[in-house]
Amino acid sequence: MKLDLFDLSGKTAVVIGGNSTLGSAMAVALGAYGADVAIVGRNPQTTEDAVRRVGETGARARAFFADATKADDLRRVLDEVLSWTGRVDVLMNCPGKNSATPFFELTMEEWDAIMDVNLKSVVLACQIFGKRMIEQGQGGSIINISSVSSDPPLSRVFTYSASKAAVNNVTKFLAREFAPYRVRVNAIIPGFFPAEQNRKILSPDRVEAIMRHTPMNRFGEPHELQGVAVFLASERASGFVTGALIRVDGGFGAMTI
């Protein structure tokens, strides 16, 4: 007997930051398993490109344009998604912003900018889309994208590390709050996947240090996040999983020295 654990047919997935390298890879996987996928981004070209990639799986996909740090934009997107499919079942929060500014050179303007993208956007989206899931009364899945820098914090990326540690805390808090409504809240902790927000800090000495601390001795590939994304999105596959921080890091988190 074949178990249909990962079928997302009839579900609507909202992927905020789904136009990013990692976000779009996970959005493609959700579409491939049957979900209607709403790609939310600010850049029209990359957002439409992500929609095209999801559509190539045979899934329905649409672009929605918003600044994820603005509540009014996210409320508008929710209304537009509901007009499109009538429901929200999966929310994935993928926005990310990084910087290697030394601590004593850090301005509060940069601190605010990174915190807004990495943390505020997650809180707002969980408020706006999470409330809708609860009101629907049919459960749901929220998937936040954290980072190996969340625990322990990595050198050179102070604000980014602090923001992702907070994402972990938000994930666990909301897992408790939303559990009575069958809305599960989990986070994926990717290891080192070269992407837009970290390419500028991957200097040769940085890469060497990362490889020394990664037992698999390589970077991750975007498609290697697809399985865990579908697993967490599917109630059949992960219906008793909430408050989890799932590492996909090549063993980075298993190293102590």
UniProtKB/TrEMBL annotation:
Transcription regulation as a keyword of this entry, yes or no, is no
SUPFAM superfamilies the UniProt entry points to: NAD(P)-binding Rossmann-fold domains
Keywords for the protein's UniProt record, in alphabetical order: Oxidoreductase
Stored Gene3D superfamilies? NAD(P)-binding Rossmann-like Domain
InterPro entries annotated for this entry? NAD(P)-bd_dom_sf, Sc_DH/Rdtase_CS, SDR_fam
Q: Which residues form the signal peptide?
A: none
PROSITE patterns associated with the record: ADH_SHORT
Q: Which domain of life is it from?
A: Bacteria
Record GO terms (molecular function): oxidoreductase activity, acting on the CH-OH group of donors, NAD or NADP as acceptor
Q: Which GO terms describe its biological process?
A: bile acid metabolic process
Tell me which family the UniProt entry assigns to this protein: Belongs to the short-chain dehydrogenases/reductases (SDR) family.
Q: Return the protein name.
A: Gluconate 5-dehydrogenase
The record lists the organism as Candidatus Reconcilbacillus cellulovorans
